[in-house]
């Protein structure tokens, strides 16, 4: 079917940020006394909000992260983004194709508005969306894997959930899209295909060049 809206996750789908941010997160948590490997960060936190990091660390260790955790983490991440962040290969061509075909699209990300803006501006993608088509977990009560963010994006864009497709690269995001009643296309660049399939992905793809055909 022809979708009336494509909702893109940001990290790992539009911008190649997951390796950068998860290495920083693992290192920072380890500094704070919560030993974490890069692989563990990807497994536990990829696709989630900073609040999820707080909740999981408290649950695992019984200790809260410091009040200024977000500030310290984002300072490190934004500095790294501004120096070396790149768009996901092929995503610009996908956005151009959707624009040419008259298919609306937006961002639905677990990141803060500031993180999304920094990332999209550095990679030259922000002008393709504009602030009015960027939706963050800050906008809703519950982040992924709850459906709230995707339902909020659909409502703001004036599209019924069943007419939306989501592009995600994490099991958390796939589960959120499924819970929202939306088809979801799992990008396997950073996550094993089996994990996205188990989470409920409608279809899987490993190269952005495949996406326009899938969502046509």
TrEMBL record:
<dbReference type="GO" id="GO:0016787">
    <property type="term" value="F:hydrolase activity"/>
</dbReference>
<dbReference type="InterPro" id="IPR036412">
    <property type="entry name" value="HAD-like_sf"/>
</dbReference>
<dbReference type="Pfam" id="PF00702">
    <property type="entry name" value="Hydrolase"/>
</dbReference>
<dbReference type="InterPro" id="IPR023214">
    <property type="entry name" value="HAD_sf"/>
</dbReference>
<comment type="similarity">
    <text>Belongs to the HAD-like hydrolase superfamily. CbbY/CbbZ/Gph/YieH family.</text>
</comment>
<dbReference type="GO" id="GO:0046872">
    <property type="term" value="F:metal ion binding"/>
</dbReference>
<protein>
    <submittedName>
        <fullName>Hydrolase</fullName>
    </submittedName>
</protein>
<keyword id="KW-0479">Metal-binding</keyword>
<keyword id="KW-0378">Hydrolase</keyword>
<dbReference type="InterPro" id="IPR023198">
    <property type="entry name" value="PGP-like_dom2"/>
</dbReference>
<keyword id="KW-0460">Magnesium</keyword>
<dbReference type="InterPro" id="IPR051600">
    <property type="entry name" value="Beta-PGM-like"/>
</dbReference>
<dbReference type="InterPro" id="IPR006439">
    <property type="entry name" value="HAD-SF_hydro_IA"/>
</dbReference>
């Amino acid at each position: 079917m022809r979708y009336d809206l494509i909702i893109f996750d940001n990290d790992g789908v539009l911008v190649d940020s997951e390796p950068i941010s998860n290495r920083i997160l693992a290192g920072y948590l380890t500094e704070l006394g919560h030993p974490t490997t890069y692989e563990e960060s990807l497994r536990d936190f990829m696709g989630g909000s900073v609040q999820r990091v707080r909740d999981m660390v408290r649950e695992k260790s019984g200790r809260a992260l410091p009040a200024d955790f977000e500030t310290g983490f984002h300072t490190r991440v934004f500095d790294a983004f501004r120096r070396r962040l790149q768009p996901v290969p092929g995503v610009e061509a996908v956005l151009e194709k959707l624009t040419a075909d008259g298919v609306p699209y937006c961002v639905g990300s677990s990141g803060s508005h500031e993180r999304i803006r920094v990332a999209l501006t550095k990679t030259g993608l922000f002008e393709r969306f504009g602030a009015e088509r960027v939706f963050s977990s800050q906008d809703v009560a519950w982040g992924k894997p709850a459906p709230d963010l995707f339902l909020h994006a659909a409502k703001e864009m004036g599209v019924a959930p069943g007419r939306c497709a989501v592009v995600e690269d994490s099991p958390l995001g796939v589960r959120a899209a499924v819970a929202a009643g939306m088809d979801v296309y799992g990008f396997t660049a950073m996550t094993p295909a089996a994990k996205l399939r188990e989470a409920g992905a409608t279809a899987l793809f490993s190269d952005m060049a495949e996406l326009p055909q899938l969502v046509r």
